[in-house]
Amino acid sequence: WGTKHNFLYKYPEYENTLPDYLLNNEIYLEDAGFAINCGYPLVLRPDRGVQLILSFDFGIADPFETVTKAAKYCEKNNIPFPLIPPVSEEEKNCPSSCYIFPGENTPTVMHFPLFNKDSCESNEKIEELKNIYRTAKGIYSEEEVDDLLEVAKNNVRKNKDKIITEMQNAVEAER
């Protein structure tokens, strides 16, 4: 996010064809990661025809925050997105490894919380890992990065069949 100089400002060839928000000397941008901490807006452009989104959530506080914010963003901007039902505090603290959010005339979203009851055995282990891999920590050892990658890989492995099924469903829906 930040202020950027508009390279098209007062450029004669485009002066009467640009939208109003591009007619200023400066353009104010916001990083999608800052707004909703994910790249959903880029993927959901209607011309992309996206049928399936694999959403990997590495958030520590609320593993459903990004997908919930994406749903609100899409609702506000009239972009098709499946309904994300409310999640209990218990589920937020100890989520499953995969959630499938289908919809009518929307992409299906498969949501994968990183630290979950399937890969971490217990609530205590989830909390321990959240503590080790907190965002504010900043620097991780090579071993910590390797361990984190292994957790993410295992989560995908455990849900491989679900992923394949949803990919097949998306392909069939396109036919």
Automatic annotation (TrEMBL):
Entries under InterPro entries matching the protein: Acyl_Trfase/lysoPLipase (IPR016035), LysoPLipase_cat_dom (IPR002642)
GO molecular function, one term: phospholipase activity
GO biological process per UniProt: phospholipid catabolic process
Residue ranges of every copy of the PLA2c domain listed in the record: 1-175
Entry keywords, A to Z: Hydrolase, Lipid degradation, Lipid metabolism
Highest taxon in the source lineage: Eukaryota
Entries under PANTHER family matching the protein: CYTOSOLIC PHOSPHOLIPASE A2, CYTOSOLIC PHOSPHOLIPASE A2 GAMMA
Protein's name in the database: PLA2c domain-containing protein
